[in-house]
Design a protein that fits this description.
With 236 residues, the chain is an alpha/beta fold. The chain has seven helices and six strands. 42% of the residues lie in helices and 17% in strands. A hairpin with a 7-residue loop joins strand 1 and strand 2. The chain starts with a strand and ends with a strand.
């Protein structure tokens, strides 16, 4: 059994792209991966205890918000994001990258629904290739969205996904499970991965010193954020 933790990065007027990033970890590696993230939390907060004040949230690290408000040293914040990116680069962690180009959608199409469909397809493909089953786990930001995704997956498992070349979903089990991100180090990993996906795409041509500092730091050999499965749609 593999657990697939996912998070989203919403689009806006300045950046019309919707992302879902997911981290997939086999049950036998959960303890070792969690220990690595807990060690980062201890370095940041002096404790591995899960709570809202010990959450590792990428946007807050980079922009010096909430739990990282006192971290005035930008270089230290970049180093922290790089440390988490190294955990994401571990062989035990497989990545899934979904990007929806919102400007190319029809008015009736919802980016979050399409992105979730592609997540289910790509996660199922990965599980099938590994001859394994997978369980989806997401960040409970909205009860409405949680119920919607759970109902949607149930339909996909029953009759396949929606598009003309839709796929059967047989390697994802049960419903989509949700919990708050501050209660899961794995969801915090998914948060950082998803944030880095949009950051790299959004700032690829930037001349901003802070943008360039993080982009350069992510190029070191110890970091490999290449996904095991990905989908960009529609293609530009």
């Amino acid at each position: 059994m593999k657990l697939i933790f996912f998070d989203e990065a919403k689009s806006d007027r300045q950046y019309p792209h919707y992302h879902i990033g997911a981290v997939c970890i086999d049950e036998e590696h959960l303890a070792s991966v969690e220990a690595k993230v807990n060690a980062i939390a201890v370095a940041c907060f002096g404790t591995a205890e899960l709570s809202a004040v010990t959450e590792l949230h990428a946007a807050e690290i980079y922009h010096r918000k909430r739990n990282f408000k006192s971290w005035s040293d930008f270089g230290k914040r970049v180093e922290m994001l790089v440390t988490i990116a190294k955990v994401l680069s571990d062989e035990e962690v497989r990545l899934i990258d979904i990007q929806i180009n919102c400007k190319l959608l029809r008015a009736s199409q919802a980016p979050e629904e399409i992105a979730f469909m592609f997540l289910c397809e790509r996660a199922n493909d990965l599980m099938k290739a590994k001859k394994s089953l997978g369980l989806l786990i997401g960040d409970r930001e909205s009860d409405r969205l949680a119920e919607q995704f759970a109902t949607t997956l149930s339909g996909y498992r029953a009759v396949g996904t929606d598009f003309a070349y839709g796929r059967d979903i047989h390697n994802l089990v049960d419903s989509v499970h949700f919990t708050h991100s501050h209660l899961s180090r794995f969801l915090q990993l998914a948060d950082v991965y998803t944030w880095l996906l949009q950051f790299r795409n959004r700032n690829s041509g930037s001349k901003n010193d802070h943008h360039l500092a993080l982009l350069k730091a992510l190029q070191q050999k110890a970091i490999n954020l290449s996904p095991a499965k990905y989908k960009e749609w529609p293609k530009p």
